[in-house]
Structures are given as structure tokens and as C-alpha cells.
């Protein structure tokens, strides 16, 4: 099935001219979302993986995988007009399709890499199922660029996000950040019991709407 991802025009995806010209061109005219994901899947390595307990439902866990990727690819994935957030900007539904597409390409890469790294608490069948279910998600690793944001990283000025309601002010600020040196992407699988039974309730039911409305979750 052909999937048509979106390219948001520069009048809407407003990136500061303070960004280096070459990088700015890449973020505004770069490769398609499908090509970004395929490049990440081809070259990513696994930094860490673990089984994480769900605090609200202690009998459930999810697979959490951190990928190591070139900074340029993380930049395109998170900040470009064709990237992950750009798909959610178009619509929450388009964003969800993009998320599932990313997991469908990155998940098999993870399983292939983990097949050489046996971990008793993370059997491959369980990790695969956690990453394959609809509740699984991808996201940029929230490193120092988020914990100690720099004014010079506030380069993405999207009117809809900037005009969001005051209670979401912190997320609106985070949405403007365009980290250029982050090397990690996180995959968080769907919650499962240790026997593979999925959790039927969603942990963050507003996630897609939040990214659509304010650019962050």
C-alpha cells in the first residue's frame, strides 16, 4: 500500500534564519519522511534496551529501546518540514500513520540487532510484540537540550503551537527547540504482561492531539 506523507510549506513551518544556511535548507527542502525513516533503520544501532514497568499497572511492562543515529538524521526526523512532528502538524491521524510506519521499519532493525545480544528479561518475541502493537511510539531522546534548553535552539516558530492555551506553555516552549546534536531516538513499546497480554487502556490518550496542537508531548 502506498503511503503519502506530508511536506509542510515554509510559511507554516517557520524556521529561523539564524540556523546555518545548509542545515536550514535541509530542514525545509529535505528528504521525505519515508526516506528519513529508511535511512535511520539502515544505519541505527541499539544503545540500550530494557523492560520497563508501568507504574499505573504494575503487572504490565513495555520494551524501551534507545537507538544511536547520526545527528543529521535525528535533526531531520524531529525538526524538518517532512519529519515526525510535521506529520502530526498536518493532522493527528497522519501523525499516527507516520508513527506506525516508523515502528514498522525500525522495529525489525531492533530485533535483528538484539538477536546478537541476548537479555533474559527481554526475550525477542516479547520485544517484537511490544514494538508491533498500535500503542508503541517513537520519539527523539529528551536529553540535555530539553532539560537545559538554550535560547539559540528556539528556532521553530509554528503559529498554531505558539498560540496554544497558557496551561500548555512549557510544551509550547519545548516545541520551538530544534536540537542539532542529539544522537538518539527512543522507541517505547506497548505495555504487555510478561506472558504477552496487552494493556487495553492507553497510557497517553491525548498524545496525538497534543503533538498536533502544541508540537510536543
Q: What's the gyration radius in Å?
A: 17 Å
Helix and strand sequence: EHHEEHHHHEHEHHEH
- List low-confidence stretches: none
The geometry reads as globular
Helical content stands at: 40-55%
Q: What is the average of the pLDDT values?
A: 95
- List the total number of helices: 10
Distance between the termini: 29 Å
Oligomer: single chain
Described by strand count, sense and barrel closure, the largest sheet is: 4 strands, antiparallel
From the helix content, strand content and strand pairing, which structural class follows? alpha+beta
Biggest β-sheet: strands ordered side by side in the sheet: 2-3-6-4
Total discrete domains: 1
Strand content: 5-15%
In total, the number of strands is 6
Amino acid at each position: 500500500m502506498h503511503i503519502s506523507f506530508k511536506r509542510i510549506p515554509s510559511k507554516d513551518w517557520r524556521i529561523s534564519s539564524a540556523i546555518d544556511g545548509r542545515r536550514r535548507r535541509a530542514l525545509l527542502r529535505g528528504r521525505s519522511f519515508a526516506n528519513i525513516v529508511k535511512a535511520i533503520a539502515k544505519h541505527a544501532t541499539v544503545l540500550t534496551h530494557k523492560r520497563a514497568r508501568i507504574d499505573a499497572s504494575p503487572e504490565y511492562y513495555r520494551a524501551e529501546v534507545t537507538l544511536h543515529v547520526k545527528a543529521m538524521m535525528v535533526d531531520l526526523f524531529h525538526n524538518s518540514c517532512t519529519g515526525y512532528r510535521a506529520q502530526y502538524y498536518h493532522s493527528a491521524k497522519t501523525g499516527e500513520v507516520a508513527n506506525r510506519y516508523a515502528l514498522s521499519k525500525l522495529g525489525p532493525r531492533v530485533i535483528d540487532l538484539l538477536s546478537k545480544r541476548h537479555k533474559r528479561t527481554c526475550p525477542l518475541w516479547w520485544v517484537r510484540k511490544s514494538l508491533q502493537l498500535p500503542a508503541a511510539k517513537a520519539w527523539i531522546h529528551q536529553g540535555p537540550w530539553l532539560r537545559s534548553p538554550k535560547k539559540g535552539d528556539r528556532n521553530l516558530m509554528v503559529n498554531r503551537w505558539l498560540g496554544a492555551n497558557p496551561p500548555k506553555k512549557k510544551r509550547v516552549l519545548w516545541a520551538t527547540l530544534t536540537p542539532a546534536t542529539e544522537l538518539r531516538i527512543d522507541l517505547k513499546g506497548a505495555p504487555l504482561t510478561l506472558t504477552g497480554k496487552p494493556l487495553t487502556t492507553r497510557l497517553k490518550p491525548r498524545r496525538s492531539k497534543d503533538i498536533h496542537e502544541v508540537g510536543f508531548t
